[in-house]
What does this fold into?
Amino acid sequence: MAKKILVVDDEEDIVDLIRYNLEKEGYAVATASDGNIALSVAEEFKPDLIILDIMMPGPDGFEVCRQVRLISGLAQVSIIFLTAKTGEIDQILGLELGADDYIQKPVSPRILVARVKTILRRAAEKVRTETIAAPEILTIDTLEINRQNYTVRIDQNESFFPKKEFELLAFLAANRGKVFPRETLLKRIWGESVYVVDRTVDVHVSKIREKLGRYGHLIETVKGVGYRFKD
It folds into this structure.
């Protein structure tokens, strides 16, 4: 079955160009021209990947990214920000929201398609690896990490974790007692194709600990090395 991709941009010529190149590669493509339409189409189309502009009518790309994670069945959808916004702060925000890549316009269609293939391949490999590595639901006392629907519950109360925060938490929790260097975590969670710095891991761990509350201490810092989930 063809992988499904949703392209969201208010510039019609860009949408047409991207759709043409993706369909030529065998992907099923849906499109949207503003944030509200994007959310509606995403809920119905259930894409495997979303190529998302930031500056557009209605909710901007960052808000669409946040909201799409709350749609049933889309918690783990891959997202690429494709935007004219070049600021470092915007890029960091996009990646912290759980985007798999952040690409600045203009970009050649061939490069974009190559990045799409890489991300979809990595997502498929991650599913296979995680299926073998750990059960779908990890339970520690009243902390429940559901790797199937990307939810975290503490005392049966659900707490929202953006995609990358969730993946980092789930990976550490699935490998309790093992120490992982920051470099390993960067490659595992963000992949080889996205440039992020070591501090990105530290920021995400800090946010995870805060959201975990009394369970935050379970993620231990191993000085000079990285992190582990307490066994």
User: Anything to note?
Assistant: Residues 168 and 189 are 6 Å apart (CA to CA). The longest helix spans residues 109-133. The chain has a mean pLDDT of 87. Helices lie at 12-24, 35-45, 61-68, 88-96, 109-133, 163-174, 182-190, 198-212.
